Amino acid sequence: MYSPIPHNLNLYDDEFDFESNGFCPYQWEISVPQKNCIIWGVVLSYLRSADFTVPGKFEERLNRLSENAFDSELVKAAILDFNPFFNMHKCFFDETLQNINQSFRKFLNEKRPPKAPKTVPSDMQLISTLLKSNILIVDLSNKNLNLVKPSDGYSTDPAAITLFCREYSNKDAKKPIVMKRFTFSLNKDLCWELRRNAFNVILESSEVRSVAEKEIQSLTENKEKKVNILIALLKKNLTHVISELYESSYVVSKLADAGFETDPRVVDSEGFSALYYALQSGNNSLVYTLYRYAANNCYETESTFRDPNPSIISNLAKLKEIIQGDCSKSNDFERFGEKAEQVRVTYRDLLRFNEFLIQVSQSINEIREIPEDTSVKRAEKQKEIISIILENYDAFYSAEQIDSQSIDEEEPIENYKKHKAYYDNLDFTVALLFFDNIILLKSVLKSPRQHFYSDLECSFLLSAVTNKYFADNTVKGIKMPDLGYEMDSPIFSIIPLLERLNLRERAKNFCKILREKKLVEEDVDYCLPQQENNEKLRYIQELKDEYWISRLDHYMKTALEITPDDVKQKFVIQRALQVTGESISVKEEDSPSIRHLLRKCLPAHVLDALKKARNALSHLKSFQFPLKFETEKDDCLFASIQSEIRSIREASGKILDIQRFRFMEFLITRGLESVQRYESMEIHPLVQPIENLREKLRRNISQMESEILDQKELDGNFFVPNIEEFHRRLMGHPSKSVKKTILEEIPLEVRTRMEANHKLLDDLDRGVALDSDRFESLFLKNKDLNNIKEEYKGYLQEEEESTADPCRRSKRSSMVQRIQKSPNPLLTLDLIFEKRKVSDSQLRTLYEAIPFSDKTKSSLESLIEISQNPCGDNLSNLLNRVDYLYDISINERSDVRFLWERAKSSKAKQHLVDKIVQRYFREPPFQLAIEMLLFDCVEIVKNKEDFNRFWLKHSYLFNGIDLRNVLDFADPLVESIGNVLDPKDLPSELVKKMLHLFEDRECIETLRELWQKEKCSDHSAEWYKLKERIVCCPRWEQYCKLFAGDPKDSEICEAVISFLKNVTEPKRSKKY
């Protein structure tokens, strides 16, 4: 099926009198399924073209179709809901319309004369007579019109039905057969209303709807054709509207379905494409936005130039012709007056960029077609792809097709600023292609030398970051005029330019080593080398620091902007706590980092509390999740934690300022170090101002660091009792009052014995001679007590006989260790309080030594039960988190819920992902809440190897990495590169995993129900009804592994899995 197509029927028969026959010559062709296409076309055309403003008119038509077999109001609602300009497939899944279709087909068969041949002309005549309506058949193959009138000559609804007929060859048959396919059409006026309705629904939540809607008002005279809304908006110079529209390829494609032209390649009546008008606007960012949309074939398929195929290559060649055509038709853009010269520069740059993509795409596509029957050949192909990308980068490095060195020597900064859009887009695209493919190379080819891969990765990242960093008037919060500099100063252009030159040199060296390497079997690797993975950004600590501090600031700031009065906000605070704890987790022996300075801003007890809270949140066991769920109900606790996070942020506030200056100083220093390498370039007059700026930055950094290091008595500044309380609850430790109640029941006699034991150990360790009666204070059985007394007597006797026996000290140490390991009531209580395992002998000694009350004994027993059998209901835990994820990401937004319930096509599903990701960026609290809940899902299933593949990343950048590690420990390289090159890449992957969990929810819930029935030994017939709801999920076996953590349940688990594996997949019912 395809989108509606406008037709001018005058072209098929210029003598046909449309007006007298009641037809409109301007129609929009509507596609229907091939099966029963005539019936579908007749039913939809006949009913939808009815005049609903005239009472009884629709009911009269429905009666002729179905002989009063259906509720007219129900059918009317279904027909009015039908809008092929918004959703061309929906009506064919509507049960009411399906039933009408079947009913009319049956009615037609009954009315067909006995033994009469079933032919298209005879059926058309019969339909026309039964419905008392003229039928106009547009034969697109022969380009003519055929009018069918009722055989009795009576027609109450002239021109009610227009059908289009196409001929095609059935290639599936043994002999090719010419087949006919019918579609129907609606007139331009009705279609315009449908198009407007579709337009409003598509842009329902868009900020640009009001502006765009005003523009289409003036286009109503073009009802009979596709309106080029893109060019219309460009002519009005509404560039901001276009930029927002093209943020979502789905929205743009839906507008195209609604009859609004959005393809930048399509020309207007003057013969110019949208790219021509975008060039006229002077907005280079918009030019490249539209170019990329066009270069990716307007996302008609999943293929893009990041994963090229012949269709993409052919499209790039077509784009070249279109761009050149715009130039030729406009006589080299002479219409643009004063703008013409700058437009010509952008035009030539765009053409050169397009040529770069053609060269790279053709080469990659050719390489991928080479057979790879050995591991060496597979590695050779990946090596060749990376080499081609980098070699083409070198070839197209300069904007103009002359020797790049002459440009660099002539006017390097002016050239860089003049062609900035070209350089930005070339570097950006090469970085994307490089990072899309480098992980594939690393997984098959061992590094030829140490840090071979990570050095170039860092160069790409530094070049991208530097370019982005010096992009506007404020550099990461530093107002440059405050330092005595304006951002248009040449010194800020030279720094990204130098980093770009560094990247080029490193890429050339990388290619040279790759080319010289003749691959043999020993060079082949079969997985991503862990060493390379661990050494990302190995020597650029400043990049890591920039990532960690920016991340910390973002999460703490977000946690302080919300009001923790609902559970979603509590997820935000938890995630902020987790990230804060991770940010201060740095050891003294680690490389110098601003995180060491961050630790010096906070008291030791605060650091300890943050570390414990982070570890608890990141390593929850199944039995702890219900404790967490219960804690999330405490509004007061989280409000207090929020206040403590505010104190932490205030105490560490200077760190953010220091990092801003440190990172800028780092980038400037790298630029100065690069100056010596490019002595031929005319940049040395700029060196002194850059050095002056660096000195100012260093003085600021030194002063701020001194203020932090000079702080005294940090420990008394503030406390975080609520974070400590949060940790206690997560761990399941008893509260202070419970501990106090239990400890108060310890008799003075036991405390006295404990003190005597401590003194005994101390004296024994120091070699003080002891009276054997002192051992009576130990909590030992008589036999063990007598043994240690005898051992000590033997030790004393040996001491009298010799003063230099080295074995004597060893024996004393052995006795000290035995005593330390002996039952100790207070130590046993500490183990119980900390949820650690307690032996039976330790418990016996505890209860023998301390006569606890029944109430206290019951409290202890409940604590011991959890510590001895820490198993929880994994399925229930997972459902809890999935349900909150669903409420937050789907239920809170009606437009997202609409998409979730109706999205069937891959484009619609991708748009759903895009909508959620859009909210991820626009609403930081939403981002943190989603991350916390997804992290909990990771924790619940983390010990199940079956889920390893589930959490692997499948999109372009860093394909194959484990998303669990990104959520847990974060990854400076992955997230830094993602933020610069493709900010939506990582969030999109997280959202897709979340949507998979939603798809699996019914399976998870049913498995839990089945598990509970099995545990209760309920083998009723209902047990079998649950099967179908489980096995339809592709991951049902993985979820079965979550049944329980108790080894005693393993047999039941295996029995359930065995039962489910015997289920036959149910037959799927036909949709229509």
TrEMBL record:
Query: What keywords are annotated for this sequence in UniProt?
Result: Coiled coil
Q: What residue ranges carry the coiled-coil annotation?
A: 687-714
UniProt region (Disordered), positions on chain: 797-816
Protein name listed in UniProt: Uncharacterized protein
